[in-house]
Write a structure and sequence with these properties.
The chain is mainly beta. Helix content is 9%, strand content 27%. It contains three helices and 16 strands. The strands form five sheets. It has a five-stranded mixed beta sheet with strand order 6-3-15-11-12, with no helix packed on it. Strands 5-4-7-8-9 form a five-stranded antiparallel beta sheet, with no helix packed on it. β11 and β12 form a beta hairpin. The chain is elongated. The N terminus and C terminus are likely disordered.
Length: 303
Amino acid sequence: MRSSKLTVAGLVLAFFDTLSFAQTVEEAEDGTIRIKIDDPAVHAVPAPVPQVAKVAAPIITPAPEVKDSVVNGGSPGDLTIAITNSYGAPLSLSFEVNAGAPAFVGNPQPTSLPVAAETSYAVPSGWAGRVTVGKINHCDNSKIEGSFYGAGNGDIDVSYVDGYSAPITCSVGDVVVTGCNMELFDQECAAPDSVPEMGPDGKPAVCSNSARSKDWGPASQFFSSCAGAAYTFPKDDGANIGMISETLISCCVGTSCPASPHQKAQKRNVKSPRANAPSLLPRSHRLREQLHGRSPHGHKHHA
């Protein structure tokens, strides 16, 4: 009987020999067979799981708030007048303010604007004045003029009343609100108008306007193509379509600039004020005189 049990034990041992882990088969005194298994997988201590450091979520810093019309030390809410030189020659800029009105922010002095360059000037509430633009610094140059009494109470126009030196249009958004982009020097500046000074290129730099003292015009032959688009006589009020609520006005000097739909001939790059029109408010001539403080459109007439 014992040998039979040993035979069974031997068979069991032979079976476990085929396994990959160690084992021991023992027979107890009572004939019981005990099997001890030494499996490393059973007794192995699990390897420690590497700890992954927690990475804090990045802190997103919001972009700085962009303040409208903060130019050259200005303040939010100022009116900004941007000027781009698309004229093909350097431009002379000079600045005037009406009596009692605050100056341009930074009190800019006469300067030159290179070809294809852009500059911006801020004006505070209460401002009324003008920027003269031309190939030379002359009092009869083309002018960007306006007044500003806070958002919703601004006014801008292009004036050739004193004279013409370069074509200018001004826009709010992509809509031309005043000015004429025609090169009037494509024709002769002849009597009753006059050329007071030649430019560095040997060509007329300025054509002085003989209708400057004729409130109701009409415009002379030289200026007539821009009548109703830019001021060509003191009450040529078609050149100004209303008070502007926006605080950024973009003015462009040159024939490639967007044209006013009010130009009488040779319109170029015309954009209608009907599409995407800026916020405009109608105004009376009397209110306009109050805003500009001098003549109906802020001109400082020269004898």
